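Reopening this ticket.

The earlier resolution said the output was attached, but the attachment link was broken on my side. Pasting everything inline this time so it's all in one place.
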Amino acid sequence: MTEETESKLGRLRAIAPDELELMLTWRNAPGVRANMYTRHEISLQEHLAWWARVQQRTDQRYFMYECNSQPLGIVAFNGIDINNGNSEWAFYASPEATKGTGSRMEFCALEHAFHELQLHKLCCEVLSFNSAVIKLHQKFGFKVEGILREQHRLDDGFVDIYRLGIFASEWQVGRDAMLEKLLKLSTN
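Inline output:
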């Protein structure tokens, strides 16, 4: 991305050690937890132990998303498989993030996946009741590849999981139009 585009859309960067508590605060926010597989409130000790394990892995990368030098969310790539050119991804925004932050984060994530990681395919899973995120992914070119019926136990029942994916070639087809749309929205 150009410097001008980055100033309007934001960027992904390394998570600083002093940002781990901020990351945990966002992750424990009720609106974020409600859409995750792990829904309990995570303790600082549990979070730091998890982060230490992540740092030892080569198939996981976590980034801070920031715009105008303000941290606004987390983008994660999990199960990075360089041999097969694919990975899973997920994200969550600060509860205080403004409308449109998720779209800007998704753009940055796709750029990173296909230009930095040189992936062939990027996938994600979304709990079925999170229809806003399913629609967001579809706007960016993700296709529903399957629905895992009643795959995840939640409270007293089970929910479906939507599996979505996008190829690098599909992203390249829709990238410029999405960039134009996001830049237009950022100037309003």
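Reporter confirms the inline version is readable. The chain has a mean pLDDT of 95. The longest strand covers residues 70-81.
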